[in-house]
Every structure is written in C-alpha cells, then in structure tokens.
Fold this sequence. Notes:
This protein has a single domain (about 1-350), classed as Rossmann fold. Helices cover about 45% and strands about 15% of the residues. It contains 13 helices and 12 strands. Helix 1 packs across helix 8 and helix 9 (about 255-270) packs across helix 11 (about 315-330). The longest helix is centred in the N-terminal third of the chain and has 24 residues, at about 95-115. Nicotinamide-adenine-dinucleotide binds near residues 58 and 79.
Amino acid sequence: MILITGGAGFIGGNFVLDWLAQHNEPILNLDKLTYAGNLETLAAVQDDPRHIFVQGDIGDAQLVSRLLAEHQPRAILNFAAESHVDRSIHGPEDFIQTNIVGTFHLLECARAYYNGLQGQAKEAFRFLHVSTDEVYGTLAPDAPAFTEQHRYEPNSPYSASKAASDHLVRAYHHTYGLPVLTTNCSNNYGPYHFPEKLIPLMIVNALAGKPLPVYGDGMQVRDWLYVKDHCSAIRRVLEAGQLGETYNVGGWNEKPNIDIVHTICRLLDQLRPRADGRSYAEQITHVTDRPGHDRRYAIDAHKIERELGWKPVETFDTGIAKTVQWYLDHPQWVANVQSGAYREWVSKQYTQE
Ligand code: NAD
Ligand code: DAU
C-alpha cells in the first residue's frame, strides 16, 4: 500500500490511474477536494478495490496519523498543494496553509509513523515530495538550465511556499533521518488539466469562441513535460532514488507561451475547424502581464537520466496532439468543471471519513 496526497488533482489523478494500470499494489488517496480536486477524473477506478479514497486535509494530523496506523503504507507521496500561481498572487493564505503548514503536519505524522516501524518495513519506507522548478526563480535567456545545485530564488507566493516545503522536507531528513526524496519538475500538461492553466484554458476558450488571453508579450518561456512522463519519473524515483536526494524532472521542451498558443490554434484548425473557416489564432488577445512574472524556466534533467535511467517518452509535438485530442474527446469532463457539477461527485459517490 502507498499513500498519496492530492490524488484527485491533475498530476495526482493521472498518477493514480497510471499506478493502478501498472501495479496490483493498492493506493490510499487523501485529498481535501478543493476546487482543484475532481473525482470525475477517477471515475474509472471508482469501484476498484485497490483504490481507497479519503476526503481530508494533509494538515489534519489526527486523520493522517489514523490513516497511517490503519493502512501501514510503505511510502507517502505528497502531491497535495495549492498549485496555481495567479491564485497565489490574489490570495496567498491557502498556499501558506497547505503548502507549508500542511506539509509540516504531514512530515510530523510521517516521522512518528517511521519511528514506530521496525526492520524491513522501516528500511523500505519513503517520503516522496513532489515540487516544482519555480523554486529556482527565473533564468536569463542564455543561462544554462536549472540543475539540482541551482540556488533557491522563488518569486511568487506559490513558489515561495513550495520552496519552504522543500526546505522542511530536507530538514526532516538531515535532522531526524526521515527517508525523503524530492522531485522538482517543469510545467506538466495532458489529460484532466484544470482549465485555469495555460494549455487547457486556451483549448477550452478557443472552442467556446472566447479570447485567448496571452500575458504581456507572450515571450515567457516554460519547459513542458507530458504528465504521464512525470508519473513514470515519480515511480522511478520512488523505486530507485537515493535517500535525501532531489531529482529535476523535465521534458527538454522549452517554448515561449505564444508559440504554444499558436500550436494549439493550428491543431484545432485541423481537427475542429471554426464554422467561419477562419483560424482560432484570430482569438489571441494580449492582456496585462502577471505581476512578478518569471521570464524563463528550463530543467536540466541529466541527473535522473544518468542515475536512474529515466527518460520522457513524449516529444512536445506528440504530447500536445494527444492533449488537444483528449479535450476534444471529453467535452463532458470540461462542461462539468465549467458548470461546477464536478463538485457533486463527492456527496453522490463517497462518504466522508
Ligand atoms: P492541482 O491543483 O491540480 O491538484 C492539487 C490537489 O491537491 C487537488 O486535488 C486538491 O484538492 C488537493 N489539495 C489541496 N490542498 C489540500 C490539502 N490541504 N490536503 C489534501 N489535499 C489537498 O495540482 P497539480 O497540478 O496536480 O500539482 C500537483 C503537485 O505537483 C503540486 O505539489 C504542485 O506544486 C506540483 N507541480 C505541479 C506542476 C504542474 O505543472 N501542474 C509542475 C511542477 C510541480
Ligand atoms: O513550472 C512549474 C509550474 O507550472 C507548477 O509548479 C505550477 O503548479 C503550475 O501551475 C505551472 O505554473 P505556471 O504559472 O507556469 O503555469 P500557468 O499555466 O498558469 O502559466 C503558464 C504560462 O502561461 C505562464 O508564463 C503564464 C502564462 N499564461 C497563463 C495563463 C493561465 C498566459 O499567458 N495566459 C493565461 O491565461
């Protein structure tokens, strides 16, 4: 049994589906179901006895301690977080509560649980913390990509809260010997991505005939990683990562935002042409830039490739084509997010612990 937190979110949800497709080992999924948690993503495993869902907060020490004692997981994988940079600018408090205070409580529970383990169970236990490249700050256009040695220079309330959580995880290893692993990855994209983030927002807005809001000049660079490649990296780090180490995960796909938006428009022009025959690119609108907007992120993923033999499978061309097709094939998932109907799944399908 492994315990994952945030498994109803974008990456956590993909991880649960992926894990159960590859393993027989059960998964205990602790998720608070904030606006970003969507149980419809997990519909395919709703009746799978290997998946146990619990609605709850990583900061609820009583609940977490009880779950650890009852289920005796061999690992905790911490995906749970407030993840959207724009929301952190407009209201940072939830980011501090979940990403810092929540991670602290989770670590405390993990430490007590780990101290009570014996023999092989203690030897095998892992706490894997999922983090971001944003902790490293912004890169000049010609600077080398972020390695694991790059200093932490977080610039948004979101990235500062993730940096704080990374430091806590590191300290629990150094001070208490908790067997931790940390991954810092670049921008993910793929199925079940909440349409507040760039790629799904552009697809959904384009199809709805709405403006495609590009912040500032659109020349900010992000480094894109297909979500299923991220899932395979996490599985590999869990399996073979060296205790106390951090691993950068990226897909070697640096692209300016404006290029991403044009690529999405081109794909939609082919796959779902506009009724008037014109290009979706006509919907692109430049809007005011994000305050403190980091100009460039780029991940150097040599360490995980060299030491753990992990490589991404998707190129950006294959990954973005699959992603656009997924959104075209799943209009109901999108519609339920937009109408808010996805929230009803909690009361309809699950009882609260
Ligand atoms: P997401 O916002 O889609 O999902 C977060 C999930 O965590 C949701 O299901 C939410 O309900 C749950 N959650 C929030 N607060 C919680 C709490 N206090 N207790 C329990 N559950 C809680 O996020 P995501 O994009 O899937 O990101 C997952 C992790 O990966 C985060 O830690 C994020 O910082 C990190 N990350 C994301 C990206 C990316 O591109 N999406 C890139 C790098 C790192
Ligand atoms: O780098 C990893 C990070 O990637 C993760 O840690 C975060 O959890 C995740 O949300 C993501 O952060 P970004 O801020 O990079 O993602 P977002 O999709 O919000 O924005 C991507 C880029 O696109 C960014 O430069 C801002 C820009 N953008 C975004 C939106 C939503 C726009 O130009 N227009 C938009 O409407």
